[in-house]
Amino acid sequence: MEPRDGTQSALKHKAIIDAATALFLSKGYQDTSVEEIAARAVVGKQTVYKHFADKQQLFSEIILGNIATAEGFTAAAAGILRGTDDLERDLREVARRYLVAVMQPSVLQLRRLIIAEADRFPGLARTYYERIPGHTVTTLGSCFRDLAERGLLQTDEPALAASHFAWLVLGQPLNQAMFCGYADPFSTSELDHLADAAVRVFLAAYAAPDPRP
Predict the structure, then answer these.
(1) Interacting residues of 92 by C-beta distance below 8 A, sequence separation 6+
(2) Rounded to an integer, what distance in angstroms lies between the CA atom of residue 14 and that of residue 88?
(3) How far apart are CA 2 and CA 9, in angstroms?
(4) Under a CB-based contact definition with an 8 Å cutoff, are residues 17 and 61 in contact?
(5) What count of other Cβ atoms lies within 10 Å of the Cβ of residue 74?
(6) CATH top-level class of 5-52
(7) Backbone region of residue 28 per phi and psi (left: phi > 0; alpha: psi in -120 to 50; beta: other values)
(8) What proportion of the chain, given as a percentage, has pLDDT over 90?
(9) For position 68, what pLDDT does the model report?
């Protein structure tokens, strides 16, 4: 049975996204043409324009396409921390999930791409920052404020504490991936070790004093 029109259109849309993503990542935005995208997706050039007004709109959809993944992590982290009865254990769980979410090759490649094109698309770069890393840190700050009110953390600046937590967790592996690439990825055990160490340092600075004598 032939696929219905809607299914066929969805398949073509995905093929265009996949083709454009591969080309943008390998050649950059400027050196990728709509003709190349159409050829790689095995569709006509007009089909590309039927789905996307122009190359810029297609690029924007690709860059912002991992928002759902980021939002999934943010919601999970908030749920873990707001109900915690063992802060060190649950911060380790959040830190480990954070690294898994950010250190995926596809996420790293897209992050590299938007950084490379930030001067050409400053609005898109800002939107990416605000809706993905910025939103994550804002949510963590809200969680840390609640934890401080519960007496589990000691901070008058929960937003700053959230920034410290994010960079303790992500700073070293993310910088390495951005500068050195991801041909030699971190193992799960290496990422877990980095997450656990980050939590120890964070709690050394921010854990509330133990009220027990």
Answers:
(1) 195, 196, 199
(2) 42
(3) 12
(4) yes
(5) 20
(6) mainly alpha
(7) left
(8) 74
(9) 72
